[in-house]
Design brief:
The chain is α/β, with parallel strands linked by helices. About 25% of the residues lie in helices and about 25% in strands. It has 9 helices and 23 strands. It has helices at about 30-45, 105-120, 145-155, 180-190, 230-240, 265-275, 295, 305-315, 345-350; strands at about 1-5, 10, 15, 20-25, 50-55, 70-75, 95-105, 125-130, 165-170, 200, 220, 245, 250, 280, 285, 325, 335-340, 350-355, 365, 375-380, 385-395, 395-400, 405-410. A 6-stranded antiparallel β-sheet has the order 16-17-18-23-20-21. α3 (about 145-155) packs parallel to α4 and α6 (about 265-275) packs parallel to α8 (about 305-315). It is globular and about 75 Å long.
Length: about 425
């Protein structure tokens, strides 16, 4: 996988790739049965990228021990963990006995097997190498221990063509690591990954400097409860790289604001990002009696957004070029035109995808030119219907249903 046309992605053979990802932080460290259920769910989903961790995760809704550990040794007693006291165990909890100089090959073998299974499904493995949610001491290792780990991880996983590198999830919460540390990890990665896989680093509050030359694309978490996708075109301009909104808030119903938006809102954010030239990503955080949340454990999908995301993915795959970029039209909330067509000056003439989001107009008027005819379709992005409105040219008006989440597509005949 490579960056293509500055803001988009393609395989090395030139085939276009539209990243439609999901996050399942430690699905690969669950029971074998749950892993197989996750893979079965992924096979029937629209998702072609999945973010997950090498290290186990210590956080709310995820206090169980993993099926394996990356180092030789034994963990602390986790039976005393609750949602109220879990922060007391953050970092290296009392009772851990791991040797951070002796990696456990079985742990990495199990991850390799899952990378291969994802490859067979056509899914990119976006591997999170480090993160702060830890009670085993893996986030607070020494410089020498970190470097040993990085060399080992690269040696194990770099040969798989569907690997992406995410240096960290929420790097800015790892208080013991400095920018100099992250730059050192990046230099190790660039030097020892012979295939130059895609590389990113993910934030919590403060963005990393995505202009750094080793970063191939922006991996962004929202920093505003309401607006994230709306900034996509500004971030493209600021960083000059593909914008992947890896954490744009999750469809679910947990108390946390990052995990309780509706399927309609997540779908709206996907459309906003796509038409502004970026790529939103998915996850789910629905409270469950068995405490299995897709965002952390995998399992089955319970939300309303995945099938609507699949509908959007199909529409995007039918567009020419490498992807979309925003076209400013003061009468339409957001409109996308294609990028990656030759000659570039024709891109605003061959395709328009307009989205009205929360607005509810009963008609929309276009005035392009008399010489170009367009096939016009009205798309209900929630009901997943496409209405053929015929061929038009010059100035024309299209009736709309006066409801939310409507799009209009114009394709040059």
């Amino acid at each position: 996988m490579r960056v293509a046309g500055t803001y988009h992605f393609a395989y090395e053979d030139g085939s276009r790739y539209i990243p439609v990802g999901t996050t399942c932080y430690v699905w690969n460290l669950q029971s074998a049965a749950l892993q197989e259920e996750t893979l079965k769910t992924l096979a029937a989903s629209p998702f072609n990228k999945i973010r997950f961790c090498i290290f186990p995760k210590h956080y709310i809704y995820n206090f169980n021990e993993p099926i394996s550990y990356p180092y030789e040794g034994t963990p602390c007693d986790s039976s005393v963990l609750t949602k109220d006291n879990f922060k007391e165990f953050q970092g290296k909890a009392p009772g851990n006995n791991f040797n951070y100089k002796k990696l456990n090959p079985l742990h990495f073998q199990l991850i390799e097997e899952n990378i291969q299974k994802l490859e067979k499904l056509g899914i990119e493995a976006d591997i999170i190498v480090m993160h702060p949610y830890d009670r085993w001491g893996f986030s607070t290792m020494s410089k020498e221990e970190d470097d040993l780990y990085w060399h080992y991880v690269i040696a194990r996983f770099a040969s798989y063509h569907n690997v992406w590198w995410s240096l960290a999830n929420e790097f800015d919460l790892m208080r013991e690591k400095s920018i100099a540390d992250w730059e050192r990890y990046a230099s190790i990665l660039c030097e020892h990954d012979p295939y130059a896989h895609l590389r990113s680093i993910h934030n919590c509050h403060a963005f990393y400097d995505h202009k750094r030359p080793w970063i191939t694309h922006c991996s962004i978490q929202r920093t505003d409860n309401y607006r994230t996708a709306e900034y996509t075109d500004a971030w493209r301009q600021q960083y000059g790289k593909p914008v992947v909104l890896d954490e744009i808030a999750y469809e679910g119903n947990i108390p946390n604001t990052w995990g309780n938006i509706s399927g309609k809102e997540l779908t709206r954010r996907f459309w906003e990002a796509a038409l502004r030239g970026g790529y939103a990503q998915h996850s789910e955080t629905y409270i469950s009696d068995d405490d299995i949340l897709w965002w952390s454990h995998g399992g089955i999908l319970k939300g309303d957004s995945p099938e609507r995301i699949a509908f959007l993915k199909d529409i995007l795959s039918q567009a020419p070029g490498l992807g979309l970029t925003r076209f400013n039209n003061p009468s339409i909330p957001v409109c996308g035109v294609v990028e990656g067509v030759e000659p570039p000056q024709t891109q605003a003439k061959i395709y328009y995808l307009c989205y009205f989001g929360n607005n509810r107009p009963t008609s929309v008027r276009f005035a392009i030119d008399e010489d170009t005819a367009y096939q016009v379709d009205v798309i209900d992005t929630w009901e997943m219907t496409i209405q053929d409105c015929g061929v038009h040219n010059g100035a024309f008006e299209i009736a709309l249903p006066g409801k939310e989440y409507i799009a209009v597509r114009l394709r040059r005949k």
